[in-house]
Design a protein that fits this description.
This is Amine oxidase domain-containing protein. It comes from Brassica rapa subsp. trilocularis. InterPro entries: FAD/NAD-bd_sf. The protein is α/β, with parallel strands linked by helices and 488 residues long. The chain has a seven-stranded mixed sheet, with helices on both faces. Helix 2 packs antiparallel against helix 7 and helix 3 packs parallel to helix 11. It is 26% helix and 20% strand. It folds into two domains: 222 residues, FAD/NAD(P)-binding domain, CATH 3.50.50; 189 residues, Polyamine Oxidase, Chain A, domain 2 (Alpha-Beta Complex). The radius of gyration is 24 Å and the shape is elongated. It has twelve helices and 23 strands. The structure holds flavin-adenine dinucleotide. The site of flavin-adenine dinucleotide has 40 residues, from helix 3, helix 6, strand 15 and helix 11.
């Protein structure tokens, strides 16, 4: 397969105008490649440093040199808003390559949709053990413990997402969670969601197994992990990606499929002020996750998963062993705090002080005891615990656009937060951006500005559970209230 790269002129600065999206006019005719799974170490070292950045804009270069790369929120903000827009003016390559930075649900579905349209992509992800991001599973050996430590289950309401779920069901990647799931009031009163509730889906071998399976059959999508893309540079008409100074390839289009501090840093000096500004509007919650294994079943428990009401240190408890049908012992539980508790006890997630971890662990286990209505100090001692802070857990606001795309900078964003706070939103956003980029690449003759999307939308607050939204799943209380209202 030959890859022809057309030499491109240097970019120049110009303001953006926005029009509505054009319909695709010509089909893509792109050749195929075989899928390879590589880690960063085995990536080919290419020629990132050979181009002269000052050819873009000498003033821009000068300003970048004079300001030290800072990581404080203030300096990131300042950099984001001061940077000038990069504009690619020449045609994209004949065989375009898209870099997707983030291998969570959104990035993976984006790659799948690019593939369906004949476009090659490379997904970069930080995951050491696998893909998935917040679709994560922790395996603890040699004890054989399994914990879903972010997404617990999902519902499917949107017809596009239902299609994916049907496909995953067919392939045996997911199945319905038939165990008792509902709401738990302080004192141990559990109410199961009624049988009329929408099906609750789980991945058969833990949530991460779904993420790891999605691109296995792909021919046009490469996966590179673990890899933390730390720099994006627009040079000579291509995006050059690097990881701590090591080149990770050059691409026609980039996709930011992650959010939070990491994305803000990456975008702060990229030449994408509009994209950076949209990302900066995102507000995220923090959630503590406590993984705990017990030798014996927890007393009084008659459910597999429960949204906990009325306790600040606890918003969810789920029994992974029962859910995944692992049976036997130990019993692996995932406990999540509320977002309010996460905020109160927020610390740097990569460096949790011992005093905080001890306080939070004790607080959450006490929450479990109170939720189950157990006498003080009677909760069995876990044989294993692991505490984790999801510092950028769930979006608290959304612009409610399926994706963001800056055609001048050839850069897009997908992710749950653009539509909601769940796997369904992430998948739909990934699909939307994949198709949008394919439309853009297919319409090389069209005015690029027609492809600008989501660059000026304002976010509004998001409602939902502390651990996200579950489309179609109504709170037991709300449902009873609605039924009582109907009887009047
Ligand atoms: C505690 C918790 C519980 C949840 N429970 C549920 C639930 O039960 N049901 C549900 O539907 N949803 C749930 N969610 C929400 C759901 O997990 C997310 O909506 C969804 O997984 C988001 O997918 P995403 O692709 O947008 O982002 P992510 O999953 O966050 O993926 C982004 C990926 O990008 C990677 N990355 C970041 N920076 C870089 C970089 N510079 N270079 C390379 N890679 C990078 C990250 O490591 C990550 O793998 C929960 C979330 C949390 C935190």
């Amino acid at each position: 397969m030959a890859t022809s790269l057309i030499p491109l002129s240097s970019s120049f600065l110009q303001p953006l105008k926005f029009k509505t999206l054009a319909k695709p006019r010509t089909p893509l005719n792109l050749s195929t490649t075989r899928k390879t799974i590589t880690t960063c170490d085995s990536q080919n070292k290419n020629t990132e440093a050979s181009s002269n950045p000052s050819s873009r804009n000498p003033n821009f270069q000068k300003r970048r040199k004079s300001s030290k790369y800072g990581t404080s929120r203030r300096s990131i903000l300042k950099k984001s808003f001061l940077q000038e827009q990069v504009t690619f003016t020449a045609r994209v390559s004949e065989d375009p390559q898209v870099a997707i930075i983030g291998g969570g649900m959104a990035g993976l579905v984006c790659a799948l949709n690019l593939e369906a349209r004949g476009v090659k992509s490379t997904v970069f992800d930080t995951g050491i053990h696998g893909l998935g991001g917040r679709l994560g599973t922790r395996f603890v050996e040699p004890q054989g413990l399994v914990f879903d430590h972010a997404a617990q289950f999902f519902t499917a309401d949107d017809s596009r997402f239902i299609q994916y779920v049907d496909g995953w069901l067919e392939k045996g990647l997911v199945r319905e969670w038939k165990g008792a799931v509902g709401e738990l009031e302080v004192g141990g009163s559990f109410t199961q969601f009624p049988s009329s509730s929408p099906p609750k889906y789980i991945a058969v071998n833990g949530m991460r197994s779904l993420a790891d399976s999605l691109l296995l059959e792909s021919r046009l999508a490469n996966v590179v992990r673990p890899c933390w893309i730390s720099k994006l540079e627009p040079l000579n008409g291509m995006w050059h990606l690097s990881e701590n100074g090591t080149p990770r390839g050059q691409f026609d289009v980039i996709v930011i499929a992650h959010n939070g501090k990491c994305a803000n840093r990456l975008l702060s000096a990229s030449g994408l002020p509009l994209v950076a500004k949209q990302m900066k509007k995102l507000d995220l919650s923090s959630i503590w996750a406590l993984l705990a294994a017990f030798n014996d079943p927890l007393p009084t428990v008659n459910f597999e998963g429960a949204f906990v009401k009325g306790i600040e240190s606890l918003s969810w408890m789920g029994n992974n062993s029962a859910k995944l049908g692992n049976g036997g012992t130990p019993h692996c539980w995932t406990f999540f705090s509320t977002a309010a508790y996460g905020k109160q006890n927020k610390v740097p997630q990569e460096n949790i002080p011992t005093v905080t971890s001890e306080k939070v662990r004790a607080g959450m286990l006490q929450g479990v005891e109170i939720a189950l209505g157990l006498p003080e100090g009677s909760l069995p001692k876990p044989v294993y615990t692991r505490l984790q802070l999801w510092g950028a857990a769930l979006p608290k606001n959304t612009p409610a656009v399926p994706c963001i795309f800056d055609p001048q900078g050839r850069a897009g964003i997908c992710g749950d937060w653009l539509l909601g706070s769940n796997l369904e939103s992430a998948a739909i956003s990934g699909e939307a951006l994949g198709n949008h980029i394919a439309d853009y690449l297919q319409n090389s003759e069209a005015d690029p500005e027609e492809f600008a999307i989501g660059l000026h939308d304002w976010p509004s607050p998001l409602a939902g559970h502390d651990i996200g939204q579950f489309p179609g799943l109504t709170s037991v209380g709300e449902k009873q209230e609605a039924e009582a209202y109907q009887l009047l």
